[in-house]
Amino acid sequence: MQGWYHSWVAALRIARRDAWRAKGRSSLVLAMIALPIIGVSAADLTLRSAELSPEQTLSRQMGAADARLTSSHLGLPIYQLPDGSNYAPVGGYDKYDPSSTSRDEPQEPDISTLPAGAQVTKDAVGYGKVRTRHGLLGTDLRELDTQSPLVAGMITLDRGRLPERAGEVIATTAFLENSGLFVGSTATPRGATTSYKIVGAYERPSELGKDEIIAPPGTLIAPLDQALQASGAFGIRPNVSYLVKVGGDGFTWNMVKAANTKSLVVVSRTVRLNPPADADVPLYQQESKEQYQLGASSTSEMAVLATVVGLAMLEICLLAGPAFAVGARRSRRQLGLVGANGGDRRHIRSIVLSGGLVIGAVSAVIGTAVGVVLTIALRPVLEDQLGVRFGGLDFRPLELAGIALLAVVTGLLSAIVPAVTASRQTVLASLTGRRGVRRANRVLPVLGLLAVAGGAMIALYGTASKMGATVVAGGSAIAELGIVALTPVLVGLFGRLGRWLPLSPRLALRDAVRNRGRTAPAVAAVLAAVAGTVAVATYEHSRDLQMRHEYVAELPHGTGVLEAHENSAHKEVPALREALSKGLPVAVRADVDRLVVGKPSCESFSREPGCGRVEVITPKEQRCPFNDTPGGRSAFTDAQARELSQDWRCAENRRGIQHSLVVADEKLLKVLAVTDPGSVAALKEGRAVSFDKRQVKDGKLTLRVITATEGVNAFPQTGEDPPGDDKVLPVHQAPDTADGWGIEVVLPPAAAKTAGLTTAASGSYFTLDGTASSEQRQKIAGEIDRMGVEATMRIEAGYQGKDSLGLLALTVFAGLVTIGAAGIATGLAQADAEADLKTLAAVGAAPRVRRTLSGFQCGVVALMGVVLGSAAGILPAVGLRMVQRRELDALYQHSLNKGYVSVQEAVPYVPISVPWETLAQLIIVVPLGAALLAALVTRSSGALARRTTG
Fold first, then answer.
1. What sign for the dihedral angle of Cα 360, 362, 368, 371?
2. Cα-trace Rg, the chain
3. Are 464 and 457 spatial neighbours (Cβ–Cβ below 8 Å)?
4. Coil, strand or helix at 747
5. Which of 94-108, 142-156, 702-716 is predicted least confidently?
6. What percent of the chain stands above pLDDT 70?
7. Residue 66 to residue 44: CA distance in whole angstroms
8. Who contacts 581 (Cβ-Cβ below 8 Å, separation ≥6)?
9. Contacting residues for 294 by C-beta, under 8 A, at least 6 apart
10. CB of 659 within 8 A of CB of 723?
């Protein structure tokens, strides 16, 4: 035992000394192992610190109160979960009738049953637009008594003071940053008759990005609601809750159940910290507990995570292993002396393994320490990115120790192969510098071949399995490991190409093939990195082709539309149209209006008395039975549904637009590229034009004016027509070849006026004389913001593929790994071939030969790894695409059988396409760059050595 201890101590001392002497090589390996450790340790500390304790969560949610009470808006008794995250009506949703509850008016919590002496603070939150320096900003408008002790912990005052009187507000720091306002400036909600002075800035610790302002109770929401309603716009309906403090034992579970009878949802501090038994939770007696529980990490997810970690460790080992081999090769005389002085193979292995242990331990310490320090130093930045203030730095020593141990294990694993190889060298070969001859391993290629075959079969099985993606990923990983094991054999096959190469590349290829022990790990490392990049690139390229095929244009190419999304903005639309004409090279502009019932500011489907809408009434015999039968498709058998899906009455419009019934003149047809002469003539004559033949009968179109009145249901059940006054108009039916681009009926202004229909401006369609530049688009967007209108402008430009930053990052990573691995292999080759290089110099070889040979050695390793990696990366991408094809085909067939789609609709298109451009960059550019870089950093001459004697 004592001898074992002393031998390892000596080995560690030797390894530490060698690591210190070879600072460059040691730093390279240390960086490769430490960088992942830095990221993992920093992520662990960050995520653990972002996890709040239950007490911290409750403090941010309800301050110092015992409970927060909120209305369920169901209007009847409920059962809830102990933490208040979910609830259900007594008897379940199956027996709940939503029509029995009116939701037109906000329901405030009924707190009449609270015990006497309870402290109560009202918290009301609405939503509105606030005018800023840039335009309008959607903001939460909150009324809360910030002076109340119950609020302590909910907000953190950053600067300024709390509001004390009407006309004062505080704003979140996020709101101030996004709005361009500051403490001391004024904020004006849209529609308000008064402005509010911002007297302080605060933040919500768990929602740092929240745009919100807080005013004293009764000073913001109620006055704004009155001003909006007075102007004809919709008012604000706030969500109201109450912070309650009852003292004593807090808000107990019995009190929670009593509040549930008043349709209140309660988040109780006492219940959350000390939850009741499942038997005491009525909701669990009514419904199973499992449906309210979040699923834990599945076995497949854990398997994927383990696979990713394993492949990452393999990549590091493949990269670091040759570096340890370089050290062992340069120290072979020292190792030979150990053997000559009585050391056996165990001592040689321990010395090389100690190198891995020393580097791994140092990497563990440095990586963990740097990760922790970076997290502490970057804490404000991390909190801003996550949007949550940490409850404190939560150090988990066992987790950090496990991460550090991972670095040590990685270092040891990286040194295993070099240790075994060095221990097999004879003492004479080590002392004289001879390489010796070693038989190739015959077992490893067989295992690799079996792994490739087995992995491919598993991936193929995954294309038909329910766990498709997971099985394909697992099979692909096994196949990739098999290719890694086959790398020495594959490198040997590359050697047969040498006969057709010039001198320098032939020497480089011959050297790589003869010394597979150092070439194979580097090639395998390049293979692993490139395989991942090629797999992602192939998958993304194929998916991009699929999305291009499935893309449905909203308008003719180059045509645009400007539309307001709020009916209350009808007065600003003319100004928007003028800004459009001034800011863009508009060729033709077709202004469109919408039909109005009641006030122009009424929303299209409002239930407010006095508001309403105009609907096109389709003749009953021309309606799709699916849409005119209670129960919809479920009321028909599969055979009936399949038959009806082929019916012209059930054809679906693939484009959904805000207003399918518009008022416009013939210019709209020109903009929409509708060339039917009859349609143009009809609009000029004052007749409507229909693009949906289901709505037309005997050349007539029926418009129904529906007004919301008390006691009348303006939204009847399926199969029933809403009550209203009909307007029957003459109409021209456009041919089937004419595309209305989502518009179903175009009503000329004269026809609308004759029918007594009221209109309001809604937007414009337009074509351009040329194209719109980015600057012009930005100016229009800025003008819309300046006006404070919810409007958008879009121009149809066809399918626009998305550039993947992730794919670019993977490509760069693969290039760096390739250059690094090839560089390590080249350094090892130079250490092995130093005698050959000196011989070349002695016989008169030009100095550039040394540099050229080094470049080709690096390029050969990079090229072999890239070629093999490109081939290996195709498998997972093809497997995943085949899984998607099978799933979409099954969905299409199911939809066809159920009558959800018609046989005329296109079958799913799931292409598999190789990104040749990316492959060309990897196969040509990366090896060429590696070769040039190696040639540039290699010295062109070396010192001649004396002839070795003896």
1. negative
2. 37
3. no
4. strand
5. 94-108
6. 80
7. 33
8. 589
9. none
10. no
H-assigned helices in 657-804: 667-671, 677-685, 749-754, 774-787
Output the pLDDT for position 359.
Answer: 85
**Structure tokens, 461:** 């099985």
pLDDT band at 185 (very low <50, low <70, confident <90, very high): very high
SS3 629: coil
Task: Please give the model's pTM, rounded to 2 decimal places.
Answer: 0.68
Is-contact 724 698, C-beta < 8 A? no
Provide the CA 524 distance to its chain's centre, in angstroms. Answer: 31
CA distance 441 to 173: 65
- Spell out the residues 6+ positions from residue 628 whose beta carbon is closer than 8 angstroms to its own: 620, 718, 719
Task: Tell me phi and psi for residue 482, to 5 degrees.
Answer: -65, -40
DSSP H or E segment with residue 567:
none
User: Concatenated DSSP letters for 152-210?
Assistant: BTTBEEEEE----STTEEEEEHHHHHHH---TTSEEEETT-SS-EEEEEEEEBTTBTT-
- CA dist 939 and 838 (Å) reads 13
Amino acid at 549: H
How far is Cα 502 from Cα 766, in angstroms, rounded to an integer? Answer: 64
Q: Is 670 exposed, middle or buried (0-12, 13-18, 19+ CB in 10 A)?
A: middle
CA distance 309 to 407: 12
What's the chain's length in residues? 950
Q: Which residue has the tokens 């590359």?
A: 494
In one letter, which amino acid is 851?
R
**Helix, coil or strand: residue 542:** helix
Reference 521, options 449, 418, 439, 406; nearest CA is 418
At a CB cut-off of 8 Å and minimum separation 6, what does 536 contact? Answer: 806, 807, 810, 877
**∠ Cα 774 775 780 (to 5°):** 100
Residue 380 pLDDT > 60, yes or no? yes
Q: If you ran DSSP here, which 8-state letter would residue 371 be given?
A: H
Token pair of 42, please?
């920093």
- Mean pLDDT across the stretch 751-766? 89
Pairwise CA distance, residues 393 & 372, whole Å: 10
Q: Residue 610 is which amino acid?
A: G
- Opening angle at CA 416, ends 410 and 418, nearest 5: 120
Contacts (Cβ under 8 Å, ≥6 apart) of 791? 562, 563, 564, 565, 569, 572, 573, 576, 763, 784
Q: What span, in angstroms and rounded, lies between the C-alpha atoms of 919 and 246? A: 69
